[in-house]
Design brief:
11% strand; 9 strands; 7-stranded parallel sheet; 15 helices; alpha/beta
Length: 357
């Protein structure tokens, strides 16, 4: 850890003193940047971009070159895992990701393979190795995966969904089959994340995008317990690599998420950080939680809202400033720069280790 020149993110995740609040942005390598759109156009399609290590590395580095961020996150997609399991990922124009072979029946689930991350997912590992080398330990590199529940919903639906018809049919009609699928995805995800650490990831995130559609009981049974398995297994193999869990619309389950043994918990913009801190008994680092829509606002408005997020967390070193979800594609990059500058300016007041104290 000490070879990294900027250790703020890792310090926050390990509850160590910081001079200011670290900041990175979910989807920071993405469509709001003109340089990303250029590389994406050259690649021809998203899968070529994500599947070519040199291109994935380039777009991972773009926001780091442009902004004084405290971490890079590898450019990839949560659906690389089901693709490697044989579902045949493709992107339909204007419709987002789709699978040629959805997993809806016990037979479909039974036939799924468990891929080797250094074979079927080698391109992600190569992108991590290349990016880690290119970063030259300037900032830490974050690896990630989707939560088993979120990945499984895509696998069952065959793409994105608003009503999760096939998933809910399985959940309430054949929960054994659903658990069998979640188990396979969990085993694959554990191996995938371990391989990411071996390839150079210095912190990990698990994105549970669709956990918030579940009832409290179903959340614990079908989402949280599988994320718990991931945390427990990763901690056995890599006890020093911090792991953050993020359930969108999961504010009511923050105490349970914090008890998994994770180091960080992502908080979306629907929960006040003051409440999140109380709910998690200050035992984990909190990441968030500016509404991405704030970045459409004027500079005084952005400053006001950044200040509100910092004040909401209060004094302490266990806060990572981030958006409450991914950055929108139509946001002005200058507003992102202003947000980062404002965090740099205002956050030292919330840290006892600040040189200004």
């Amino acid at each position: 850890m000490h070879s990294i020149r900027n250790t703020r993110l890792l310090r926050a995740l390990k509850d160590q003193p910081n001079d200011r609040t670290p900041i990175w942005i979910m989807r920071q390598a993405g469509r709001y940047l003109p340089e990303y759109r250029e590389v994406r156009a050259k690649a021809g399609d998203f899968l070529t971009l994500a599947g070519t290590p040199e291109l994935a590395c380039e777009v991972t580095l773009q926001p780091i070159r442009r902004y004084p961020l405290d971490a890079a996150i590898i450019f990839s997609d949560i659906l690389t895992v089901p693709d490697a399991m044989g579902l045949g990922l493709y992107f339909a124009e204007g419709e987002g990701p789709k699978f040629k072979n959805p997993s809806r029946t016990p037979a479909d689930i039974e036939s799924l393979g468990t891929p080797d991350p250094e074979t079927e997912l080698r391109y992600v590992m190569d992108a991590l190795r290349l990016t880690r080398s290119e970063l030259n330990d300037s900032v830490p590199l974050i690896g990630f995966a989707g939560s088993p529940w979120t990945v499984a919903t895509y696998m069952i639906e065959g793409g994105g969904s608003k009503e999760y018809v096939h998933t809910k049919k399985l959940m309430y009609g054949d929960d054994n089959a659903l658990h069998s699928l979640l188990n396979k995805v969990t085993i694959t995800t554990i191996e995938y994340l371990k391989a990411q650490v071996a390839a150079g990831a210095q912190a990990l995130m698990v994105f549970d995008t669709w956990g918030g559609i579940l009832t409290p009981r179903a959340y614990k049974e079908f989402s949280l317990q599988y994320m718990q398995q991931i945390v427990s297994s990763l901690k056995q193999s890599y006890p020093d690599t911090p792991i953050t869990l993020f359930t969108k619309n999961g504010g009511m389950w923050l105490p349970e998420i914090a008890r998994t043994g994770c180091d960080g918990v992502g908080v979306d913009w629907t929960t006040d950080l003051r409440d999140a801190r109380a709910l998690t008994s200050n035992k984990v680092t909190l990441q968030g939680n500016l509404d991405p829509g704030v970045l459409y606002g004027s500079k005084p408005k952005i400053r006001e809202e950044v200040s509100r997020v910092l004040e909401s967390y209060g004094t302490g070193d266990r806060h990572i400033f981030n958006l409450g979800h991914g950055i929108h594609q139509h946001i002005d990059p200058d507003n992102v720069e202003y947000m980062i500058e404002t965090v740099h300016e205002l956050s030292p007041a919330f840290h006892t280790n600040s040189p200004n104290k």
